[in-house]
Design goal:
alpha/beta, 3-stranded mixed β-sheet, 9 strands, 4-stranded mixed β-sheet
């Protein structure tokens, strides 16, 4: 029902493990109309959404590949799987919800940072307090003024800021 009230981008996780004897293919991926980029990370599988969810809204990739030491330093900017291109969740949000000129600029800047495999270094330049984090219970209890959310891109989910186990604090 949320899709009826505004643009929605749902997360889906692409997988990049080439050593797995069988590819992960669970759920359904959203159809993607994202333009073909000059470089894209090659995905091998996915964790998609329920079929009904995959038919509504758009999808953004939250899949990642940690470095050998387990730390997350790079993300796939755009990934290729099964003939389609899937942007990372943040690019999907801009592509969906920003003005076309702003989206084009953000996507162009992100693609310029991609390496030869389609991954870009994550710039952890902001501290946690730079983000407005609101609990689900606060929303349900209507403790937040609607104006606090107006004209914002909103990420809903338990993992929106929980990558700290994959990020080294001295690399901020």
């Amino acid at each position: 029902n949320l899709v009826r009230f505004g643009p929605v981008v749902l997360a889906q996780a692409l997988d990049y493990d080439k050593s797995r004897p069988w590819p992960i293919r669970i759920g359904e991926l959203h159809n993607s109309s994202f333009p073909t980029p000059p470089i894209a990370a090659q995905a091998t599988g996915y964790l998609g959404n329920h079929a009904m969810l995959a038919k509504s809204g758009l999808g953004g990739n939250i899949g990642y590949v940690p470095d050998q030491d387990g730390v997350l330093r790079r993300l796939p900017v755009v990934s290729h799987f099964n003939g389609q291109h899937y942007p990372t969740l943040s690019l999907a949000l801009f592509d969906c919800c920003a003005s076309k000129n702003q989206a084009k600029e953000v996507i162009s800047q992100a693609m310029a940072k991609a390496d030869q495999n389609g991954f870009a270094r994550v710039n952890y330049s902001k501290e946690l307090d730079a983000y407005l984090v609101v609990s689900a219970s606060s929303i349900l209890k209507r403790e937040l003024a609607p104006s606090a959310l107006r004209d914002r891109l909103i990420i809903i989910g338990s993992s929106s800021l929980s990558l700290s186990d994959r990020v080294r604090s001295e690399e901020h």
